[in-house]
Amino acid sequence: xxxxxxxxxxxxxxxxxxxxxxxxxxxxxxxxxxxxxxxxxxxxxxxxxxxxxxxxxxxxxxxxxxxxxxxxxxxxxxxxxxxxxxxxxxxxxxxxxxxxxxxxxxxxxxxxxxxxxxxxxxxxxxxxxxxxxxxxxxxxxxxxxxxxxxxxxxxxxxxxxxxxxxxxxxxxxxxxxxxxxxxxxxxxxxxxxxxxxxxxxxxxxxxxxxxxxxxxxxxxxxxxxxxxxxxxxxxxxxxxxxxxxxxxxxxxxxxxxxxxxxxxxxxxxxxxxxxxxxxxxxxxxxxxxxxxxxxxxxxxxxxxxxxxxxxxxxxxxxxxxxxxxxxxxxxxxxxxxxxxxxxxxxxxxxxxxxxxxxxxxxxxxxxxxxxxxxxxxxxxxxxxxxxxxxxxxxxxxxxxxxxxxxxxxxxxxxxxxxxx
Length: 420
Ligand code: SF4
Known about the structure:
By secondary structure, this protein is an alpha/beta fold. It folds into three domains: 3-113, Methylthiotransferase, N-terminal domain (Rossmann fold, 3-Layer(aba) Sandwich); 133-362, tm_1862 like domain (pyruvate-formate lyase- activating enzyme, Alpha-Beta Horseshoe); 368-419, CATH 2.40.50.140. 34% of the residues lie in helices and 22% in strands. It has a six-stranded parallel beta sheet with strand order 2-1-3-4-5-6, with helices on both faces. A hairpin with a 2-residue loop joins strand 15 (368-377) and strand 16. The longest helix is centred in the last third of the chain and has 24 residues, at 339-362. The chain binds iron/sulfur cluster. Iron/sulfur cluster is lined by residues 142, 144, 146-147, 150, 152-153, 187-188, 222. Residues 142, 144, 146-147, 150, 152-153, 187-188, 222 line the site of iron/sulfur cluster.
């Protein structure tokens, strides 16, 4: 029995692709191992979103080449095939054919499956990385023009939404398997269904009809699509089964920069959405993303992003430095900012956000209620409450177990609680 090791980087979509590749291979009689040394073949499931992530891939490939049979999958396989000659490649749209690629590669044949087409993707065998969590991609691709800095569009292409019934049946199967968290994920869940006469709200209403004790985490959505369905989305988010967690990437606090990024909303659109959700769901957790040092961003325009964070006080802020990705519009833009400066801006934003995050977390001290244990942390088990807040507790618990707690301490990026 040949042993296969799958190494994954990147977003929850990539995690889900790896879980399915593992499930298909195991069903075909291969053994999935948990380290490269034990593998007869290594699948590297890659991410192309940032420069450092891509650089660590090339380094890893050099380490493995010569000692292991290697297949490259994911976004770098899809966007850089010419740099990967002599290696078997499988793109995000072809993962249902992983068994063929592995068999051919083990027989020393080089195979390349990179066509972007709507292939079977849901309700396939899988090996969940976390038995408490089911990751379900609801669509592939997006409706970005693309956004000027984005390399993902080149890899994942235009929007292809999956059928509502296929999604609901995967939720039912996951529930039957005892899963407690359903992560509905996509590059942009907000544009779900626009190509098949559906929308996110209708999908969520169908998912919520599934019986059982579980919670749904809705993946990131772009503000421009949230605006179109704001009232209905707020209503469906009030349902007990939906984590009160809203991830809407703003990327910049300055409208000029948003225009240059080819983002399709304004700062005012974003603040309106946040204000509406907070007015109707006071404990909603707001997560957002900001890019520091986009080409042409002046110090004043950067400070607009900082001031927005101080004003909106998001609960989660993914800060990233701008990286010029090959082949993107932003790579060729004038006004490229030196790495030292983008680093300085990202560090400054991290300082500002650390204070905001602690202040937001202190609001939860004294909160009492159930959490779903979904992670084993360095110094304790981690669970999620109704607002997907990260809560740490002492003691050993099963992943997926629900524990009643009281929050006794706030830390910068999580909460500490006592079990009740
Ligand atoms: S919406 Fe924009 S940033 Fe997101 S994947 Fe599409 S092109 Fe990239």
